[in-house]
Specification:
alpha+beta; 139 residues; 5 helices; three-stranded antiparallel sheet; two-stranded antiparallel sheet; single chain
């Protein structure tokens, strides 16, 4: 059977119930790659306490550890500083606790978990390799 090519002009297409349904939809706005109704407000656009705490990756109380140079100490005040220490100054073997601390720091930096979790995991790893000195505020 021979086929014939048929071209339609934009006004020649027949209307369907589907095309008229789209024409009647309420106006939407596009924000952040997600289509939302104009009246919808996402839950985390306001800075609530939990989200704000997770975005702030500073430790409430800094952690003091032994430094690479003999006889000196290093004060770690945030998940970023702890992550840097784990990656660049770690003196011992990279054990499961080291990996857990690194993951906890990454999660805190990404805003997925609070910095307190990173601090706890870091202290556990630091105690394992005997570089932990204090988790009290410096005097």
């Amino acid at each position: 059977m021979p086929t014939t090519d048929v071209a339609f002009a934009p006004g020649d297409l027949p209307s369907s119930p589907l095309s008229t349904a789209y024409a009647r939809q309420p106006a939407r706005r596009k924000t952040g790659g997600i289509r939302r109704e104009a009246h919808f407000q996402p839950r985390f656009e306001q800075a609530d306490g939990v989200r704000a705490a997770m975005e702030n990756n500073r430790f409430e109380t800094p952690v003091t550890v032994k430094s690479v140079t003999a006889g000196s100490t290093q004060l770690l005040r945030s998940a970023r500083e702890a992550s840097d220490y784990l990656l660049n100054s770690w003196p011992g073997k990279r054990s499961a606790k080291h990996r857990a601390a690194l993951q906890a720091c990454h999660d805190a930096l990404a805003g997925d978990k609070p910095a307190m979790n990173a601090r706890r995991a870091f202290i556990a790893a630091a105690r394992e390799v005997d570089v932990f000195i204090s988790d009290k505020a410096p005097a």
